[in-house]
Every structure is written in structure tokens, then in C-alpha cells.
Amino acid sequence: MRLGSIISETLRNIASGTAHALAMFLAVLFAGTLLGGYEAMSVMRLETEAAVRIRAFADVKTVVGGNVDGLACDRLSDPSFISGAMRSGPQVVPLATKGIELSSYEVTAGMIRLITAEDPQEVPDSSGVWVSSDVSHDFGLVKGSRMQTNHGTVTVAGVFDWPNDGRDMRFAYAMIAPAASSGGVFQECWAKQWPQSDQMDELLLSTATKNPKSEMRPGVTALNKGFDAHYDAQKGYLTRVTRWMPYLGLAVGLLLGVISVRRRRLEYAGALHSGESKGAQLLGIELESLIWAGAGMLATCALLSAYALRMSQSDPLAVLLAAVRTPFVLLAGVLVSSLLTGSVIRQTQLFRYFKNR
Hints:
This protein has helices spanning 3-16, 21-55, 70-74, 109-116, 133-139, 200-205, 233-238, 245-262, 265-273, 278-311, 316-323, 325-343, 350-355, and strands spanning 60-64, 66-69, 81-88, 103-107, 129-132, 146-149, 152-160, 174-178, 185-186, 188-193, 208-210, 219-222. The chain is α+β, with helices and mostly antiparallel strands. β6 and β7 (152-160) form a beta hairpin. α2 runs antiparallel to α11 (316-323). It is elongated and about 105 Å long.
């Protein structure tokens, strides 16, 4: 048979319902969406877990118990690594409310960037002090406000959030004042990195020396101790239960391919008896399978794309790439199994197929 004749017959089988294309399309759509959607949900759950940790500063570590070189601490920063030094400052008393004292801290530019900016490349305003959102609310302070204190008039450069989510709460009701990184000794060096590297602790310790006035040696600790210290985002992704979804999709595809051919084996054996070549028959089987399984796969990918774009909090593309593996493998399973199942049908089996119909 000519290629045009094979294609024409394939389209007639699809249009007339002989190929049961609609039912097989719906089966592929249902299976691919169910399995791929479950994978997408699993990846987004891991994504949400990581996002919660990042927002809660669970990825921040600090070196304490020694004298910190502020210049060395700030120099640790790179596009994926934010670091800064801090030390305790004097208690600040607003002249308008002399009964209230505010804790103050002197910090380097890197520390201001760490606690106020989501973008590591963003340069925060260091022209004045930064206050926590609680202080801003109680004193009616906004960016540009001026406040009279027992240490003179201060200008508010900005407001930062410091929620009670398990992190160190010293900044929850405090004033942050910028200080030169080369201006004296600091008490702590903080570093924020995602994903965290194995060298993070060593880098932090390299900025600190032993305080001669203390018996403590410098050590590294987590800023937020409310989260699992042994959390490994990459390991969690690689060991997730749904990593087996493509294999399950392959099994479903193989089953659908077998069903689509076996239910029509009498028809195929009869066509061979009428003179159709085996090659033409297999090509027709593959074209039919490609049409209904391919359409189901494309519809599934469209649904998964919409779901990932709508529900993913940070990286819809990563969620989508993980989810669409299953419908693609399901399509491959259909094409392979339909070809193999069709190849075992013989003209000599026509009478047996007819008798068992």
C-alpha cells in the first residue's frame, strides 16, 4: 500500500470510531494527568517546604563566641551568598516616650542586605537606621521619618519584617544602625545561602578569632533552631516517593497499547488474509496510536502547565519538567507495545480469533 492510502485509512478509522480513539484518548488523558499531577503536587510540596525555610531564615548560620572581622565577613558575599557582621549597640530611648527603651545593633552593609533585601544584588539604603515592623507600628515610623532620641536625631532608612517563626528574636523590636565593616570588632557574622554548601561553616569560622575575655571558642549555629538542622533539599527531591511515576506511566502506556491492538486482532488478521502487507499494517497501527495517544499527551501537558503556572510558588518550569516526564513516557509505552502486539498477529490465526470472538 502507498503511504497516502495508509494515512487515509488511518484517518477513516479514527473518524468512524473503529479505532476507539476517543476512549483511548480519554484513558491517556486521565492516566497522564493523574500520575503527572501527583508528581507536580509532590514537587510543589517540597518547593513550599524550602520556601518556608528560606522565609524563616532557616538557611542562615551565625558564628558566635569570638571576635569577628567585619571586613572579612562582608567579603564572603557573592551572588548566592549574603553575609554581614553585627554587634550590640547602646539602648536607645525615644524622647517622645522616655519609658520605652529600644535595643540597637550596629551592623555592616552586608547584614543590612541580609535582613532587608530578597535580592542579593540589591544595595539597601544605609543613610539612616532601619527599624523592625513592630517598632514602626508602635512609633508610626516609615521610610524618611525622623525620631528624637537620647543619642540625637535619627532618620529611618527603611522598615524590615522580623516575624516570630522560631528565629533569633533580638531584631524583633530593635533599631539597626549601619557601621563601617572596618570600624572595630564585631560579635557575630551571619551568612545566608540557598542551597547551603558544605564549606559554609568553615567560611564563617575563618572570620572569627577567640575572644581573650571569654573562655568560649568560636562556633557556628543556626539562626532559626525551629527547623531540622539536617534538612537536605536535594536529597528530599531525589528520594521523593513520586520519582517512580514515570515507570508507572510506562506500565500504563504498555497496557493501553496492548489493549488497543488486541481488541481489533480479528480485524488485523482479516486484513492480512485480504492481502495487506505486514509493514503497512504496523505503520497504520502506529499512526493510529500516535494520533490518540499523542493528543492525550499534549492535552495532559497543557493541563499540567496550567497547574504548575497557577500553583507553583517559585519555579513553575522545574515543577512542569518533573511532571511531564510521565505523560511522555506513557506515550512511548503506547507506541512500543502497540507495535509489538501488532507484530505477533498472523494471518494463520484468523480462524482462531473468529472462533473465540
